[in-house]
Backbone:
């Protein structure tokens, strides 16, 4: 039996039926709800013009809510079921209060006007908008940061604001005045979300069991299934092996928007709490297949801080909030950033079909370009990373044309263990160098048991040409990819050699502009 999509929007519970399961949140906002503040720019989750905030029930976050920015253009509307949707229009709604204070907000002609939210007022004061097309997206990212920091009683650094805004692109104003506004908004009289009203509404929306939605298009009924338990997911997947598994729609959303693909029935894993677990289990770090990229990378970076840069350079905050590491691995893209790092850490992938589990080294999961070892009716349940691997010298290097919010030309994940000055263990995994992500077996063999010297590194770099014959495409030529991959092995040696290793300030600009994100990591993996 199917039900309408029900979610909280603009102070009330909204029910939607009859729209196709792949209708985007952005299209619904602009065409059905007539909330046109949210803009369409790239329609593929890159530019941030469509940034909105989604709220879910969660204890100890922002007044009982977990608030996260997402890209409305690639999120399918049924994924909002049981959640709250906030857009730029909400910043003037009755859901916000200023603690009983009245601010003077009058035009030059003395006619009273509705006062702006501190985020918006700061953008005005700091000249943070010119054409204004990207402004609603920036405002919503800033609003999310504002709510989180107000709830925590903190004020972000300028670099933290830059990280929060790394998924929002501006082509005319420039980022300096927008960052000025991000700092300025905390100096203005406060105005915060009335979380109690939202929490009450979401509590009333919660129901036992999963959510099933269906709609007819072109004479065919397409289904959206959202089970709530792992067992229900396994049974549904076994019963409908041809259905498409959906997590954050950060890839499938583009199939629909850009390739106009027919994805058929969908099985959404985003409501399965058991799949969102990130915790230490014995001698491994378990990452559930439904855990967000943000939570998964945070857990890895907490244990190996050298992974912080690749974490924050992975796509953007809205993408990392919606997408999952399990999905990034299962997708099998040869330029995915998670698999090279996980391979370097000797990760295993946990697969499930019905009640049966099996584990594979991630290095054995990929068969060929976009092909893997998944059997019909099987799905990725999680990833397991040996905690001991995180004690090695771990590095990850992402090479892309744009520093933030860009797809890799290639990505290297490395792990090194030395016995004195001799290489005891080494893992060199690359994405973007072949049709699949894989380890550089011959380069590794050239290093194991050898002194960690320039001569050994030169031998590994030469062997790398036998490991890979990369292709040329729009992101990089084959020659460039091979040369850069060899240079990354050189960089690994420069950073980890036993004498005169390069300090952080010689290899990363972030040594003088720290991200300051790891303290929050302890909260995300508390008890792990």
Residues:
């Amino acid at each position: 039996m199917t039900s309408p999509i029900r979610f909280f929007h603009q102070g009330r519970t909204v029910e939607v039926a009859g729209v196709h399961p792949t209708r985007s949140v952005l299209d619904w906002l602009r065409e059905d709800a007539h909330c046109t503040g949210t803009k369409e720019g790239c329609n593929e989750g890159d530019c941030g013009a469509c940034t909105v905030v989604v709220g879910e029930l969660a204890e100890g976050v922002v007044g009982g809510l977990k608030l996260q920015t997402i890209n409305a253009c690639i999120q399918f509307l049924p994924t909002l079921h049981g959640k709250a949707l906030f857009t730029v229009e909400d910043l003037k709604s009755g859901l916000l209060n200023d603690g009983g204070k009245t601010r003077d907000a009058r035009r030059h002609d003395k006619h009273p006007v509705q006062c702006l939210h501190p985020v918006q007022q700061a953008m005005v004061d700091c000249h943070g908008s010119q054409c204004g097309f990207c402004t609603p997206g920036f405002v919503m990212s800033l609003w999310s940061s504002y709510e989180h920091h107000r709830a925590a009683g903190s004020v972000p650094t300028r670099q933290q604001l830059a990280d929060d805004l790394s998924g929002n692109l501006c082509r005319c104003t420039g980022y300096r005045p927008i960052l000025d506004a991000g700092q300025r908004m905390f100096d203005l009289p406060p105005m915060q979300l009335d979380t109690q009203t939202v929490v009450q509404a979401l509590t009333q929306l919660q129901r036992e069991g999963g959510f099933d939605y269906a709609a007819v298009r072109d004479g065919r009924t397409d289904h959206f299934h959202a089970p709530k338990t792992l067992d229900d997911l396994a049974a549904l997947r076994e019963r409908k092996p041809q259905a498409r598994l959906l997590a954050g729609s950060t890839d499938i959303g583009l199939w629909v928007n850009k390739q106009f693909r027919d994805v058929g029935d969908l099985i959404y894993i985003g409501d399965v709490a058991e799949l969102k677990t990130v915790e230490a289990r014995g001698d491994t770090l378990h990452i559930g297949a439904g855990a967000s990229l943000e939570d998964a990378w945070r857990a890895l970076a907490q244990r190996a801080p050298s992974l912080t840069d690749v974490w924050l350079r992975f796509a953007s905050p809205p993408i990392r909030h919606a997408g999952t590491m399990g999905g990034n691995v299962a997708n099998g893209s040869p330029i995915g950033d998670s698999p090279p790092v996980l391979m370097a850490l000797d990760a295993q992938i946990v697969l499930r079909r019905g009640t049966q589990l099996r584990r594979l080294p991630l290095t054995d999961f990929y068969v060929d370009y976009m092909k893997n070892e998944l059997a019909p009716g099987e799905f990725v349940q999680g990833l397991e990373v040996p905690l001991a691997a995180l004690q090695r010298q771990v590095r990850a290097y992402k090479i892309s044309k744009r520093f933030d919010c860009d797809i890799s030309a290639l990505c290297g994940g490395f792990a090194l263990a030395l016995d004195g000055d001799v290489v005891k263990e080494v893992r060199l995994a690359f994405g973007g160098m072949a049709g699949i992500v894989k380890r550089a077996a011959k380069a590794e063999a050239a290093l194991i048991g050898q002194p960690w010297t320039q001569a050994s590194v030169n031998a590994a770099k030469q062997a790398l040409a036998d490991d890979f014959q990369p292709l040329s495409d729009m992101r990089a030529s084959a020659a460039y990819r091979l040369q850069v991959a060899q240079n990354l092995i050189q960089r690994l040696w420069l950073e980890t050699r036993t004498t005169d290793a390069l300090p952080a300030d010689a290899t990363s600009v972030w040594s003088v502009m720290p991200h300051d994100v790891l303290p929050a990591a302890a909260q995300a993996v508390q008890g792990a």
